[in-house]
Specification:
- This protein has 192 residues and is α+β, with helices and mostly antiparallel strands.
- 53% of the residues lie in helices and 18% in strands.
- Helix 2 packs parallel to helix 3.
- The longest helix is centred in the middle third of the chain and has 54 residues.
- The radius of gyration is 43 Å and the shape is rod-shaped.
Length: 192
């Protein structure tokens, strides 16, 4: 669980054991005043680190300790866990966060690529229509059918299509007027 290799020690105000995790081998009312845990706790911090030593004085492990002093009882409760276990858990959380970050970045890139391709393809279709319109004239250019295009691109394409229809009507009207002027000019030349 969350408190892997954790130990609990409850001490009274005279630093005697009220309760200790069985792995510690301590008995109730055993004096505990000389331990490194109590010495570190006397410095007044509620979370601290201390080194557990063997009987020969060599360090065994570094432990992180949280201390609480309930107001209802005159006891200090110490919960300790090896720092290596805490670091391993933190490292796993960092790895998990980094993995989720990588997944989010990949999904963002894929979605951005899909969206930009959708916009780019739609704009390319409109540009192709305008290119055909410029090269081959009104009748040869076919208005593109845009599927899944963004609304703005569809509106642009529809505006261009309406413009070409109006331009075509104006061009036809202009051709009729030019033809009428030729007829009138021909009639005028015949009269002169």
């Amino acid at each position: 669980g969350n408190l892997e290799n954790a130990t609990v020690i409850i001490l009274d105000r005279q630093y005697r054991v009220v309760y200790a995790s069985p792995s510690l081998g301590l008995t109730p009312l055993q004096p505990f005043a000389g331990e490194a845990l109590v010495a570190a706790a006397r410095r007044g911090r509620s979370i601290f680190s201390f080194t557990v030593h063997r009987g020969d004085g060599r360090a065994v492990e570094q432990r992180m300790v949280a201390r609480a002093t309930p107001a209802e009882v005159a006891w200090d409760v110490y919960v300790s866990q090896p720092e290596s276990v805490i670091r391993a858990r933190v490292d796993r959380y960092y790895l998990l966060a980094a993995a989720w970050l990588a997944v989010g970045m990949v999904l963002s890139i894929l979605m951005a690529g899909f969206y930009s391709r959708n916009v780019t393809d739609s704009l390319a279709a409109v540009a192709g229509f305008l290119h055909d319109f410029e090269r081959r004239g009104l009748r040869a250019a076919e208005h593109p059918v845009l599927v899944d295009a963004p609304l703005e691109v569809v509106e642009l394409s529809n505006d261009i299509a309406a413009l070409t229809v109006r331009l075509e009507a104006s061009y036809e009207q202009l051709q009729k007027e030019v033809a009428q002027r030729r007829d009138l000019q021909a009639q005028l030349e015949d009269l002169l």
